[in-house]
């Protein structure tokens, strides 16, 4: 009998599916444990070996917990809405729902490409997912509940007094009986005060507009990242170096009316909640920085010759007498009002330039200094002196008030800005208010100084100065103490097709919610997925997209009469909508009436272990915590936090392969037939190369490439050109710039696991390589290898399907865990797979040989038991500590020891199969079955470690003479020093060493050393 992984794994994967082995129960008497992987997006590219790393780790832990007697929920689904599917639909003319379905279930797309499908790829690796609970965010039976949650947010406000979200009806009740003067809510800035009588006298539309200023999801004009090339708003994490991550299109800042969510209402709770969860400090710190709590004061500066007032938030109100200038964000609404006619052209040009940079880019760029003087002056609240007002892109409209009071003597960025524009109109001399030297740099410390040249603050320190200035500002009614947060409300609209439709229609431009009993509002069919000709989002192309309020259904848009039929919202929800609550849907995935029942929510409560990438620290993880807290406020979620423990798996890196190519160019004298029609003085290189037998390029070795880099020439290349370019004179290499390039090639072109490229495969790989010669055609070409991110674009992807087909899923699972600590980045090396495969074959040889089972009922030896219980202890500790790589090492040690001991005892091998089961479940199931057991090994109790088998009764002592070890002696550990000395002195080897001498001293430490001195 031989180890045949493909046959064994197919057998047990079928068994698990048919018997629903991993189906979790909602009403089990067992203790619950909920293990979750971050929602994958099902791209057409499928899985590479880097994707399953976290899934394998979570699966090992899930299987271990089942062995421990837990009712484990380990579900899987798909975050299947999103921009990539929509862009693919635009490019290929396919429906996003069709391509998404093929990407998940497998099949052939419109282009004829065979797609393996995420589900089949995942099943092939042997994960213990409860597939009965699968969810897809793009299915109407799922997004029906996302729409329902949106409506709950719309119908809620945040009461600061109760510190939670409450139904909007309670706010209406307050307004109708007492007005809004004493309402302590998270709401828009600058809300006008009204009485109860005012409220009750307002028209319904006026009341609705006021309520929009308080709702947790609301419409407002917001600065967004607008991408004209994609026709949509982008989130910050969808932008790289100022362009869209997808397609590389230009992104500009633009004001648009958008749906937003008041995540800022939960800033303090999001901050404090980090103290109650078991997450890495790095992730917690990322969230703390993103939330950005600051304690300080708001200050109002009047603008001279204007009714305008500039509000700023500062953490250093004590430095108010050091204000030299003010800076507004280029997008600040006051800029257009206060800019003078003389400065308007320069200011407008700067605003246009700034709009092309994303907020993230502006925040990260601390080196570039740029700005423009508006021509306006503000008035200092105490001295009444004029303060020049500038705009600068280092100030963001959405952070704080979008304005800063610049104190160069106390802030490095203000200091650099003031010095850069020193001497220009509108830039005053830096004023120093510290008893410190600022000739070389700003003084930014909050201690170790006294204020000077600061009027009534002279002689005070930071703490006393802050308290004093706030008191005086309040007297002037130009400021007050305040706690501020960097966290801004989240834009919730996207100008896309492939997303959740809003359950919203509009009456006189005001949003109305569709009654929840009529959900879901299903995404309509459209002919094209691009914006309309007049710039409306893709849903503007829909012909059936209007809401009939009499029949409560979606009907033809031509029937809109704004009487009983109204237009529906044309934007869709962002990608993070469906992923902000999905863990709760898994708890009760088939409930049609609610997103999950109270009983299911009460039983599962929250996720016990969450595994995923650290790149979601300030996106998904913040949004999901926000939604969970909101649902807790409204009585739906049972816990404040959704994820108790979070582990971020590291990235598996690919090893790319590169070749070096010399581009050849000609300087020969040409006939007129080669000249371009539009330029008689230029060579038409394309025609030249078509007419010539000369090659366009040449592949050279890394060694020659390095020589060229040093002296811009290489004799071997020159000689090759001379011998191989007959028919065309004066071929020359452009060594610099694009003349010699390093380009990545597909690693599948390499021969076996070597670094030697198959030259013919390379020539047939892509059109540009056909006919391309190698400088040394008769020799092996060794590619350059570099470790970098595994990516389809870098041609360094290894698919798990290939590994599973050749070596089996158990080998893949063990190897990925063996690569290194889970949370660290690790390079992939396919050559290492064979060692793990060999280990599994060696494991099998303990159980069977060519003739079948060789397990016996013989009593295990002391060494057998020691090897087993060492492994039980180590593996249990490693899994609990998420040190999966060291468990695999222990398996190898154990199998080597048992093989050396010629152990075939059932008492050892049966528990060993259970211990290895979380890591290599297929072979464990097969061995368990071969041993005569029925049913799955998956829920068999994990073996109990017994310390007695590791207690040593003997010790092998090194016996030394004057510190040099001469021989060893095995003695019982319970001997006294005197008994040990007696045995040592009588040993023939001791007598021989001493040659009749008597040692001066005999040093004995029981259990450790024996040393005879003198």
Question: Residue-averaged pLDDT, rounded?
Answer: 91
- Secondary-structure arrangement, i.e. CATH architecture of the domain at 293-485: Alpha-Beta Complex
Radius of gyration: 36 Å
Number of strands: 41
Name of the CATH first level of the domain at 293-485: Alpha Beta
> Ends: how far apart?
62 Å
- Stretches with pLDDT under 50, minimum 5 residues: 668-686, 688-692
Helicity level: 25-40%
What is the CATH topology of the domain at 293-485?
A: Isoleucyl-tRNA Synthetase, domain 2
Structural class: alpha+beta
Query: What's the shape?
Result: globular
How many strands, what sense, and barrel or not for the largest sheet?
7 strands, mixed
Find the CATH superfamily of the domain at 293-485.
Answer: Valyl/Leucyl/Isoleucyl-tRNA synthetase, editing domain
Number of helices: 32
> Approximately how much beta-strand content do the residues carry?
15-25%
Protein name: Leucine--tRNA ligase
Domain Methionyl/Valyl/Leucyl/Isoleucyl-tRNA synthetase anticodon-binding: 865-977
Domain Aminoacyl-tRNA synthetase class Ia: 11-155, 782-815
Motif ('KMSKS' region): 789-793
């Amino acid at each position: 009998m031989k180890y045949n992984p493909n046959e064994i794994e197919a057998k047990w994967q079928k068994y698990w599916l048919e018997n629903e082995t991993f189906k979790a129960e909602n009403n089990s008497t067992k203790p619950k444990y909920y293990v979750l992987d971050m929602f994958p997006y099902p791209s057409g590219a499928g899985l590479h070996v880097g994707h399953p790393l976290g899934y394998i780790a979570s699966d090992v832990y899930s299987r271990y917990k089942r062995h421990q007697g837990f009712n484990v929920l380990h579900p899987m689904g798909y975050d299947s809405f999103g921009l990539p599917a929509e862009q693919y639909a635009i490019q290929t003319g396919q429906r996003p729902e069709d391509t998404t379905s093929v990407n998940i279930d497998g099949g052939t797309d419109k282009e004829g490409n065979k797609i393996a499908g995420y589900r089949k790829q995942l099943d092939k690796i042997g994960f213990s997912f409860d597939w009965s609970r699968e969810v897809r965010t793009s299915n109407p039976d799922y997004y029906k509940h996302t729409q329902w949650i949106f409506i709950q947010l719309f119908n809620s406000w945040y009461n600061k007094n109760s510190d939670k979200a409450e139904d909007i009806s309670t706010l209406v009740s307050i307004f109708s009986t007492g007005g809004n003067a004493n309402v302590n809510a998270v709401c828009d800035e600058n809300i006008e005060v009204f009485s109860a009588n005012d409220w009750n006298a307002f028209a319904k539309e006026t009341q609705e507009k006021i309520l929009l200023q308080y709702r947790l999801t609301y419409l407002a004009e917001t600065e967004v990242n607008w991408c004209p090339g994609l026709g949509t708003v982008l989130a910050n994490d969808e932008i790289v170096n100022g362009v869209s991550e997808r397609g590389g299109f230009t992104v500009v800042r633009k004001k648009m009316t958008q749906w937003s969510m008041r995540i800022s209402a939960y800033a303090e709770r999001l901050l404090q909640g980090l103290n109650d969860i078991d997450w890495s400090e790095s992730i917690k710190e990322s969230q703390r920085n993103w939330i950005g709590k600051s304690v300080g004061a708001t200050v109002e500066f009047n603008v001279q010759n204007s009714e305008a007032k500039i509000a700023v938030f500062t953490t250093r109100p004590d430095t108010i007498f050091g204000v030299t200038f003010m800076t507004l964000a280029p997008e600040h609404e006051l800029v257009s009002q206060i800019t003078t006619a003389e400065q308007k052209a320069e200011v407008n040009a700067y605003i246009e330039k700034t709009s092309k940079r994303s907020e993230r880019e502006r925040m990260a760029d601390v080196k570039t200094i740029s700005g423009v003087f508006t021509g306006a002056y503000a008035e200092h609240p105490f001295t009444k002196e004029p303060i020049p007002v500038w705009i600068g892109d280092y100030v963001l409209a959405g952070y704080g008030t979008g304005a800063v009071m610049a104190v160069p003597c106390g802030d490095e960025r203000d200091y650099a800005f003031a010095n850069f524009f020193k001497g220009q109109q509108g830039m005053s001399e830096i004023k120093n208010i510290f008893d410190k030297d600022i000739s070389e740099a700003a003084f930014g410390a909050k201690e170790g100084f006294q204020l000077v040249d600061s009027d009534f603050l002279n002689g005070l320190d930071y703490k006393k100065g802050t308290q004093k200035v706030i008191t005086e500002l309040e007297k002037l009614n130009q400021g007050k103490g305040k706690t501020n947060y960097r966290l801004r409300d989240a834009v919730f609209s996207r100008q896309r097709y492939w997303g959740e439709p809003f359950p919203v229609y509009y009456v006189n431009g005001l949003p109305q919610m569709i009654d929840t009993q009529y959900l879901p509002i299903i995404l309509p069919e459209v002919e094209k997925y691009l914006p309309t000709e007049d710039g409306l989002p893709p849903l503007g192309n829909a012909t059936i997209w209007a809401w009939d309020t009499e029949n409560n259904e979606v009907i033809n848009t031509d029937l809109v009469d704004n009487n009983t039929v109204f237009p529906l919202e044309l934007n869709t929800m962002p990608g993070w909508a469906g992923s902000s609550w999905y863990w709760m849907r898994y708890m009760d995935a088939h409930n049609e009436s609610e997103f999950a029942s109270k009983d299911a929510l009460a039983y599962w409560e929250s996720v016990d272990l969450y595994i995923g990438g650290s790149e979601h620290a300030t996106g998904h993880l913040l949004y999901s915590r926000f939604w969970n807290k909101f649902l807790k406020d409204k009585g739906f979620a049972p816990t404040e936090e959704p994820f108790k423990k979070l582990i971020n798996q590291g990235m598996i890196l690919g090893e790319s392969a590169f070749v070096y190519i010399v581009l050849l160019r000609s300087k020969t004298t040409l006939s007129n037939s080669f000249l371009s029609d539009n330029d008689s003085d230029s060579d038409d290189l394309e025609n030249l190369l078509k007419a010539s037998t000369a090659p366009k390029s040449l592949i050279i070795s890394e060694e020659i490439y390095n020589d060229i880099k040093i002296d811009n020439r290489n004799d071997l290349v020159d000689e090759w050109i001379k011998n191989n370019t007959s028919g065309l004179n004066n071929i020359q290499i452009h060594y610099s710039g694009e003349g010699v390039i390093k380009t990545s090639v597909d690693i599948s072109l390499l021969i076996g696991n070597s670094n030697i490229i198959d030259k013919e495969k390379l020539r047939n790989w892509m059109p540009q390589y056909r006919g391309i010669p190698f400088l040394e055609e008769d020799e092996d070409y060794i590619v350059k290898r570099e470790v970098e991110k595994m990516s389809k674009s870098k041609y360094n992807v290894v698919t798990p399907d290939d590994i599973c087909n050749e070596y089996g899923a158990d080998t893949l699972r063990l190897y990925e865990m063996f690569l290194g600590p889970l949370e660290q980045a690790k390079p992939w090396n396919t050559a290492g797979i064979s060692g793990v495969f060999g280990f599994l074959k060696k494991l099998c040889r303990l159980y069977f040989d060519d003739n079948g089972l060789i397990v016996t009922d013989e009593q295990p030896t002391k060494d057998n038991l020691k090897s087993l219980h060492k492994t039980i202890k180590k593996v249990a500790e490693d899994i609990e500590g998420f040190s999966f790589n060291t468990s695999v090492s222990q398996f190898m040690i154990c199998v080597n020891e048992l093989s050396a001991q010629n152990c075939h005892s059932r008492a050892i091998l049966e528990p060993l199969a259970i211990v290895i089961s979380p890591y290599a479940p297929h072979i464990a199931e097969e061995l368990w079955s071969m041993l005569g057991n029925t049913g799955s090994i998956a829920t068999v109790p994990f073996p109990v470690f017994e310390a007695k088998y590791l207690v040593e009764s003997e010790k092998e002592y090194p016996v030394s003479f004057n510190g040099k070890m001469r021989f060893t002696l095995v003695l019982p550990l319970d001997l006294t020093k005197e008994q040990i000395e007696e045995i040592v002195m009588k040993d023939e080897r001791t007598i021989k060493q001493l040659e009749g001498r008597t040692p001066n001293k005999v040093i004995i430490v029981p259990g450790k050393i024996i040393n005879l001195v003198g």
